[in-house]
Sequence to fold (395 residues):
Amino acid sequence: MTTKKTPLPQAPKRRLSWNDPGVRAIIYQGLILGIVGLAVWYLVSNTLYNLAARNISTGFGFVNREAGFAIGESIIPYTPADTYGRAIWVGLINTLRVSVVGIIAATLFGTLLGIARLSKNWLLSRVASAYIEVMRNIPLLLQLFFWYAIITESMPGPRQALHPLPGVFISNRGLKLPSLQGDALDWMVAGLALAIVGIVVIAHWARKRQDATGKIFPLVRVGLALLIALPVAGWLLSGASLTVELPELKGFNFIGGLSMSPEFTALLAGLVMYTSAFVAEVVRSGIQSVNQGQWEAAGAIGLSRARMLRLVILPQALRVIVPPMTSQYLNLTKNSSLAVAIGYPDIVSVVNTTLNQTGQAIEGILIIMAAYLTVSLSISIFMNWYNKRIALVER
Fold:
């Protein structure tokens, strides 16, 4: 006996009718897209016409021409005979330099402030609260001017420089520190990088081990041992060819050693002081979001307050802390563009000089926008990845 298969019902054919919501939606979207395209075409064509009328060339060919201006601070070699592209690269590196150091310092200082504000010590809690409220309510630009004036006007000259530690000098020319020189430096940096990778791997293993057995691995002691042992091993493998170069006063300034200019020092101080106040509030809110029962349970098994924070409270608070912390990192990076106000040669300052000399204003603004967009998206991608990594997994 054979059974006939019943044909599946076919969907009715859609007719092009204004009464169909889907058709209307397509028409509206097409109209909006057309209007946006016409607006972009008008702006681009009008800009090109005005540039041509004023005999202003367009394009990015200027980046291969000789810059002809000096940059006061550069990690990589640079001379006025280099190209505009090289100068822009120097400005971008300077921006990344102050942003990376600022993010690390603001995170550490802000975390300590947030914990201090929740301290049971009345004086410590009130001092932290006063600092946070003052710093959050003073514009960052004014703070940069304040720190720059403190360094350049209140600090003594190089001959009367403050000398708090051996090889450390503080004057109106900035901060001078000892530096390491020699072939062993590369080996030591490689050892340090290897130690950091090792700590990450061991931390991942220790977390799994603790979840499986309940035993706590002494990660802090092992991590410190690796941070000391591997760079020392690199120093020994290289033949111990390493010297410490101390700053020396020659004439009207110091030579040798590691130098932090007044502009970099003022910008870094302003960014860290300002951003750490916001980071402290993020940390405080994250800690307070953890249920009080977690504190009581941690105390019931005999954990000290410091171990409660490190092992129980902060790992749970991170899920609340990370998303707003991402915004603070982005704000610090974008706020570094205020460096032009105190003369630090970041990418905004360098590109401003470039467009003043070449007249390529549109291209210069596009370069600045692309640089900050790339850096900000990189920070967001990393923080979103980390946020997903620590998120609770639903079962």
In short: The domain at 84-154+271-390 is CATH 1.10.3720.10 (MetI-like fold). The mean pLDDT is 84. Strands lie at 162-165, 168-171, 174-177, 179-181, 243-245, 248-250, 253-255, 258-260. The first strand starts at residue 162 and ends at 165.
